[in-house]
Amino acid sequence: MGKIVGYARVSSMEQNLDRQLIALSKYVQEDMIVTDKASGKDFNRPGYQSLKIGIGKLVKGDTLYVKSLDRFSRSKEEAKKELQYFSGLGVRVKILDIPSTMADIAEGQEWILDMINNILIEVLASIAENERLTIRSRQAEGLAAMPLDKATGKKVSKKTGRCIGRPPVQFPENFEKYYIKWKRKESTAVNTMKSLGLKSNSFYKLVHQYEAEHSSIICK
To answer: Which residues sit opposite 10 in a β-bridge?
Structure first.
């Protein structure tokens, strides 16, 4: 029989783990509960990493209990990936707030566990996709409602009063000098960009802007 391990997490040092620990203690010995007080934005947490590497690494036949799915990650997409990871190892994940994951599986009926995991993973994928679409829709609606700055043609945030998006690329000092040398084939585009400290897309954008503003200039 494999190890039975619990995992509990809160987002900051000020928060209390007691509620999760009490719930997990019904299924897991106290000294087998791993904890973290860290954000769920990524997985660089010492407690959680100990479930994947080192002496406490979970292996095939082990069982991991968590109070709720968001203890893995606040992102449904990332939580789904973690379930897939543990499922691939042969580690069973039991989530106290999802009763279907808590059911006892008789020996020889492991296919039921696979079915439960696959359904849960698909549901999470669907929820994650809906969340992404909702966020994008709200962002688009918010952007559409913003006023335009007449000078730049960019949307202006009502909250900050600043234009949305990257600031326009500015002409570096001596741009005209290097531009003329480049046009006269006295310097390559690569060397010109290096001298001006510009990336390719910024350089050619400024070239087009410069030529539009100085259309009467002919470089000999």
So the answer is: 37
- For residue 35, CA distances in Å to 5, 17, 48, 72 come to 11, 8, 8, 11
Which two tokens mark 129?
């996709």
Tell me what pLDDT residue 55 has: 85
Q: Of the candidates 189, 179, 184, which has an alpha carbon nearest to the alpha carbon of residue 211?
A: 179
DSSP 151: T
Claim: this prediction has a pTM higher than 0.85: no
Q: Which residues are catalytic?
A: 11
User: Which residues, listed in sequence order, are joined to residue 29 by a DSSP beta bridge?
Assistant: none
Measure the CA–CA gap between 220 and 64, rounded to whole angstroms: 74
Two tokens at 39?
Answer: 């954000």
Q: How far apart are CA 172 and CA 166, in angstroms?
A: 17
Taking the chain, what is the end-to-end CA distance rounded to the nearest angstrom?
Answer: 84
Beta-sheet strands, E only, within 78-213: 92-95
Three-state SS at 189 = helix
C-alpha 179/C-alpha 196 separation (Å) is 10
